[in-house]
Structures are given as structure tokens and as C-alpha cells.
Amino acid sequence: MKNYQKTLLNIGALIIGTNMANGQTTLINVDTNKSIVNWEASKVTGKHHGTVTLLSGNISIANEAPTGGTFVVNMKSIANLDLSGDMKNSLETHLKSKDFFEVEKYPTTVFTITKLTPKGTGKYEINGTLTIKDKTNPITFEATANASADGKTLTVKSDRFSIDRTKWNVIYGSGSFFKGLADKAINDDIFFEILLEATIK
Q1: Three-state SS at 135
Q2: Distance CA 115, CA 43 (A)
């Protein structure tokens, strides 16, 4: 019987009251109601931001350290937060269409952590693979993990990072592929911030 609370608090992850044999991997499931992915996309004439939600997610722990995780995003949940009414509905519908993420055919996006590198107290460089529209590419970003004072909640927040959407065949309005777009061009980079919360029950 081992309690790893102190060790895992120091590295920004936690697992409380769990009996772990040496080398055994334990999964902490994230709370999908308290976890969110924020996005921001821009074009020549302005920008928009919004959210997508998770269908599921977990963080794996082995030998007193976080070792990986898998997160499934509900692409049908794409929401815009800076517009309202018909304009909001129009943008959300367009993002879900074949021009962009084609959510009826590809309802989920999957991010899998392949490597975590400690960068200081509670800070990690996270390497992983991101699959969008059946295309998989590597991505890297940094995130900070914090445990609550009672040791029952783990919060992970990423730094702001971007991906080049064209690597996942999301090329609508891209000046890299279409010429003469002028002020209708949409930037290739999409920015994200990820907030995850996991609770040990």
C-alpha cells in the first residue's frame, strides 16, 4: 500500500488512495463537464474565437509519474463565442461543413500524448499526435499541472499554441493554396488553449 500524493503533487499530477504495484499504469479520467478546449482563428478582416468539448479523456500514471494520455474531442460541439444570432449559427454551420471539419463524417478529433518532459515545477513539454479528418500529425506544446490543496483534483492548463490547419487538409480560404483571395483569406494557424480537470473519487 503506497500513497503517492506528496510525490505527485510535486510534479503536478496526482493520484490519491490508489494502490499501485511497481510498473502498473493507472488512468485518471478527466471530467468532461469541467474540461474545455478554447480556439481562435483569424482572417484578414478580423478573428473569431470559441470552444469545443471533450467526449472523453484520461491521464496515465506509472512509477510515480505521468506517462501519457488520450483525449477525444467532440467536433460536433464547435461553438463560436463572439457572435450571436444568425451570424453565430452561420459560422458554426460553416465550420462543421465540408469546407472545414466535416463533422458528420469525422465527428471526433483525437489527441494522444507520446512523451512528457518535465520543464520545472508543474510544467511539462507535451509531445503527441493529433488526428483530424483521419490525418495524423505530431504537435508539441507546454502545459502546467496543479493539484488542489486537498489532493483530490488535478488541473492541467496548456500554454497558448497553434497548429497549421492545412496539415490536416483543412484548406478552405488558405492563401497557401488559393491565390487572389485578398481580404477573404483565412490564416492557416489556429490557436488553442486547453483546460483539463480530473477528480479522484
Answers
A1: strand
A2: 33
DSSP percent split of the chain into helix, strand, coil, nearest 5: 15, 55, 35
pTM of the model: 0.86
> Which residues contact residue 159 at a Cβ distance below 8 angstroms, ignoring those fewer than 6 apart?
141, 142, 143, 144, 193
C-beta of residue 53 within 8 angstroms of C-beta of residue 32: yes
Half-sphere exposure of 177 (CA within 13 A, CB side): 13
CA distance 64 to 7: 7
Say whether 104 sits in a helix, a strand or coil: coil
* CB distance 109 to 77 below 8 Å: no
Q: Take residue 170 and report the three cell numbers written for it.
A: 483543412
pLDDT tens-digit map of 93-136: 999 999 999 999 999 999 999 999 999 888 999 999 999 999 99
